[in-house]
Write a structure and sequence with these properties.
With about 150 residues, the chain is an alpha+beta fold. A hairpin with an 8-residue loop joins strand 4 and strand 5. Helices cover about 35% and strands about 25% of the residues. Strands 2-1-3-4-5-6 form a 6-stranded antiparallel beta sheet. It has one domain. It is built from 4 helices and 6 strands.
Amino acid sequence: MKRSSYRLVLLACLSLTVALPAYGKAPLEKIIISGSKLAHPVEVKDPELLKLSNPWFGKFADWSSPPQAAPSGPSVYNLTLYAHLDELKAIYHFRYAPNPTGGPGQVYLPGEGEEWYRQNSSIILRDKQEGRWHPALPDWESRIKKVLESQKK
């Protein structure tokens, strides 16, 4: 009888182990962009931009490039990512600064001690990437620029 109880517990533990990663990597539902010269926060639900912005896959910044100096341009936007876990909630945050001369913009992840660091690192810890500026990836940046341009009209 004890042996079947152990098997049941083992099976339950294995089921949870398999289910948790899928639950933890829920797709994004929306992005709220605020800051800079926006008159009001902008809600984005473009499926491709949501997919590229997903923090678990990191397709919004070039993590292989060395960190860059803080941007000198006037515009810095705050992006807050939302996913439906138990409920729809903010799960991740980063900043985006377009390059005023037309080159690649930059992405910044909050560093240790900054607002959002603890929340971000509970989702995914990017070894030595937090607290630094990184080049934005072209596919992601072209989509985010379209959203920002649409707000100027």
